Structures
1.
Amino acid sequence: MENSTFPKNFLWGGATAANQIEGAWNTDGKGDSVDDHYTAGSAQAPRRVTPILEQDAVYPNHRGIDFYHRYREDIALFAEMGFKVYRMSIAWSRIFPHGDDETPNEAGLAFYDRVFEELRKYHIEPLVTISHYESPYALTEKYGGWKNRALIDLYVRYAETIFQRYQKQVKYWLTFNEINMLTNPFGAYIGGGMLPQPERDMRQDCFRALHNQMVASAKAVQVGHRISPDFRIGCMICFMAVYARTCNPADELLTQQFDQIHNMLAGDVQVRGAYPAYANRFFEENHIDVGMTAEDAQTLQKGRVDYYTFSYYMSNCIGADSGETASGNVMGGLKNPYLQTSAWGWQIDPQGLRWVLNRVYDRYQIPIMVVENGLGAEDRVEPDGSICDDYRIDYLKQHIEQMREAVKDGVDLRGYTTLGPIDLVSASTGEMKKRYGFIYVDLQDNGSGTLERRKKKSFDWYKQVIASNGEDLTVSL
């Protein structure tokens, strides 16, 4: 097929994470994950980390949307939409409840056997994230999280365990979700399992943790390739697209520096196999020592990923002068007067996705997937039971159009998985009312609801998109 359209074998689907959907947080031998100690929150009241679970606090990830007991129903709905791929994660604490257990939890392994069997029944390819914001909380208590190199070998043992177990069911793997989250202290806990310490600068710990994860990723890539030559193992970057607020050279330089550290550094290491030159000055000026060893350097070079994936939701502006601010995924920035915003203040920028795709492919020249993209919004159930989420259709339509343009530009784009195909617990706020799915889940922020699944208008629209391989984006009345 000509590059004016998506490739014939393009992987259309959706993305979720175990911590956002599974629930059953202490069932069948599962241990606590970091997300199980994360309270509910909102745009106005951030989520809190509670080392000791509080009786009166709400922990939405404990229940998720009960995918653990309803996975057959949910996968059947994904199949009805025509999914070619389903991006999911395995909960580390379901396999090794404390992270450093001597033997894996068979009940946890068996659960994912059943999930993969169900996906195979519908010919849906699993795309598995090994660690997606769900490291065992015991590793936080005992080791202090990912700033401790001890977690490298524990992670590699976990990865080898699931590689061996599922080598016939899974081809596509991602080592860490949004690994570059650790370039900002916001990601210290959810990404690195390190307890928040607002009274001190955590950049040293965060970049040490990031380094340890990249070494662990590289080791896992090598192990995976030894186990199965058919494995394709990728990285996953949270791409925080930024533009200079003005043509002032100072704004351009600030934007470049932000982009280098927060967007490109982790990808450069995981794809190219070595730290980029610009990192040296940043580490020196910020008194950061990542703990690099000669062995680490060899490991990073030998454990380069096979493909590059990223999340994309919005863009922000950067400038030397202050101005009106906007919210965002991980961190905000300055408001762009040319863009509209979502109800949660995220700036909607479809063309930015084309810009990012070209930027990434120009830099790395390896296959790319967009593995998270979507609109969080409050959906209204009409008296007749229908849910008319035209705003979501419009958002996704515009982004798919820009992906199509990127394919015409020559980008080797292999897949697209929206977050989330079914309503789930928002990672940023812990809310249910911030809904992303094509499938509505009857569950409210206060825990009420039947958990009934219901198709939204976007369900049939996305089914049409997949059936036409991205050619038919029209919206019926």
2.
Amino acid sequence: MDVVPSLDPGSPRVRFGAEMRRLREAAQLSQAAVASRLGCTQTQVSRLEKATRTPSRSDAERLDRLFGEAGGVSFTRLYQRIIAQPGGPVWFRSWAEEIEPTARVIRSWDPLLIPGLLQTESYARHIFTLEPRATPEAVEERVEARMRRQRILDRDDPPLVLVLFDAGVLRRRVGGPEVMREQLDRVLEVARHPSVSIQVVDPECLPGLAGAFMIAELPDGQPLTVHADSPAQGHVTADREHAAAIQERYEAIRLWAYPERVSLRMVEEVRREWT
């Protein structure tokens, strides 16, 4: 049985799903019937209603045509509220709101920084503060969004999270010694979680220089979905060839990873150096 992750009942995405289900049932339509009108599958309609899938603009427009803004509900306006939510760029929201919360397994690689799912507030705030044209308001919104992402680790049914990062990350100064000590304490704390595995990768690993990425395994036989970083805009895709290439690169990087016990000992040793 699928377990639906905890969601904010006041969020526009939850409202979108609740209104969609209410109007569908009032019109005595099955999920399959609505799926045929949206041009998607019944499973996708179910996920829209459960708010585990982020609707597209075309979903909203087709629902408005189907229900005619019954009861004053405009799915297009709800969609606009969803994409207008603060806390990160629009291109990342499909990953943070739809992919990550429903993933069964998340594989992560980062050659430059502690991965976002493990970052402390202070570490994340220093990173975002140095972004070009960063305003204090935008920085705080992005920090809050990053902390919200980490709630998946506290669920009763957390995903299996397999983290790889370059050894140089441990000594890359972000914010100063106090911030680094706190951050490495956080890494050691999260590593005790039974669903999290953390491995440090030898800095001579050349396959990892192509950049950071994440791979999500989703339920119900859905295809692998990947998120690959770039300086301006990340890329989220379920294209089979692209996902297979990223997974192959992950395995090549993993061959350069130290065993978990050795990795955590390295973290502890470097943590003591940050004095």
